[in-house]
């Protein structure tokens, strides 16, 4: 690994490297307008048949929903995400109505599409000076019940959004991990022609 693990091997826009997932947040409030601008970016993601399967549920700190949402996270994630400004739960609709069809059928690409929307969200937040941190560590069954998510929707991730805080505010074990992470080389991930990865 090089001294700075966050260097692109090929020419790309800086935004892709600038985005990273911290755990130290400042606990400042976020306006609904700002939060919705991140979800707006997600809305413009591509999806199969333009079916737009993604769904976003959110709570902002200092609002009545905040404690309810925090309670969905596992203990580890709650320990740092409690200082975030917003929490978003990302779900997707598992069926869709194909063009010309009258009935819903399984949407085979809803997870792929929704991952793309999350990427838009994270990049827009980063471009606006905010930070996001995706979390698999939340209670899916409890989230379904607590937020009244109906059948036919899958749950994917929770996301903490906030302004970058001082890493000294984190528990000691987490301070060392509060750095942008490296990536595997592209040659391990992409091949021309046959799969030889
Ligand atoms: C779907 C998803 C789930 C994740 N779950 C957690 C989590 O539960 N707790 C956590 O601290 N980080 C979690 N992360 C953060 C990843 O570890 C992080 O994005 C990854 O190490 C890459 O680092 P970077 O985002 O700073 O580039 C998750 C990220 C994603 C996209």
TrEMBL record:
Residues 18-163 form the Nitroreductase domain. It comes from the Bacteria. The keyword Oxidoreductase applies. GO terms for molecular function: oxidoreductase activity. The keyword Transport does not apply. Keywords: Oxidoreductase. Gene3D superfamilies: NADH Oxidase (3.40.109.10). CDD domains: TdsD-like. Belongs to the nitroreductase family. This is Nitroreductase family protein. It comes from Pseudomonas laurentiana.
């Amino acid at each position: 690994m090089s001294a700075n693990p966050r260097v692109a091997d090929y020419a790309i826009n800086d935004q892709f490297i600038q985005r990273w997932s911290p755990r130290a947040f400042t606990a400042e409030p976020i306006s609904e307008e700002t939060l919705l601008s991140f979800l707006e970016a997600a809305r413009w993601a591509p999806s199969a048949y333009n079916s737009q399967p993604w769904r976003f549920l959110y709570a902002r700190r200092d609002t009545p929903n905040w404690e309810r949402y925090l309670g969905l996270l596992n203990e580890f994630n709650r320990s740092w995400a409690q200082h975030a400004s917003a929490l978003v739960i990302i779900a997707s609709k598992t069926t869709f109505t194909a063009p010309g069809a009258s009935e819903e059928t399984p949407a085979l690409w809803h997870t792929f599409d929704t991952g793309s929307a999350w990427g838009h969200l994270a990049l827009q937040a980063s471009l606006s000076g905010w930070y996001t941190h995706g979390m698999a560590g939340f209670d899916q069954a409890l989230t379904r019940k607590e937020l009244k998510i109906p059948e036919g929707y899958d749950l994917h991730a929770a996301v903490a959004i906030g302004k970058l805080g001082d890493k000294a505010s984190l528990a000691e074990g987490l301070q060392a991990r509060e750095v942008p992470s490296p990536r595997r080389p592209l040659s391990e991930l992409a091949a021309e022609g046959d799969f030889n990865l």
